[in-house]
TrEMBL record:
<dbReference type="InterPro" id="IPR012347">
    <property type="entry name" value="Ferritin-like"/>
</dbReference>
<dbReference type="Pfam" id="PF13628">
    <property type="entry name" value="DUF4142"/>
</dbReference>
<dbReference type="InterPro" id="IPR025419">
    <property type="entry name" value="DUF4142"/>
</dbReference>
<feature type="signal peptide">
    <location>
        <begin position="1"/>
        <end position="20"/>
    </location>
</feature>
<keyword id="KW-0732">Signal</keyword>
<feature type="domain" description="DUF4142">
    <location>
        <begin position="27"/>
        <end position="167"/>
    </location>
</feature>
<protein>
    <recommendedName>
        <fullName>DUF4142 domain-containing protein</fullName>
    </recommendedName>
</protein>
Amino acid sequence: MAFGKYTVAALTLLASPVMAAGTDDLKDSEILAIYAQVNSFDIETAFLAISKDCAASTTELARHLSTDHLWVRRTVLDLAVENGLTYTLPAARIEAQITHDATMARLSELECDRFDGAFLEHDVAFHEAAIDAVRTVLLPAADNPALKSHFQDILPAFEHHLAMAKAVKAGGSVSDVANGGTE
Ligand SMILES: [Fe+2]
């Protein structure tokens, strides 16, 4: 699969050395660990938004995101245990961790007058990248049927998160988007 077809956002999410190695080379154990890592990133930024307690619409969105991604992370852990799969984080994923830590540090320092906009901009880009990564990298590379099914089933929920984040970013609320999430 060609490296060049991926978006900048997807590259930010999935460190380029992993992509450059070719998606077919990703083992299920690596896919699971990458997926857990990415879910954890969104859980952390959502908890940060909840703790900031700025605009009510942003806090409400963050509660949805944290609840859903905790559920996804646990569900996939159960799937892994049931299927005898392990987690192996590729060494190259330290780049994604460094990027995420910088994002957390940057967002943490913002007061409410700037936090909401920065968080929402980050979260829209994050979900666009996550959806792209699941659809074009993780799903095609997964071998285990249960894992493949999970990715197919979860994409509408991720699309729902993206729609909610866009709605809040545009000045609306999560209730402006029809329910299609995991809740
Ligand atoms: Fe999400």
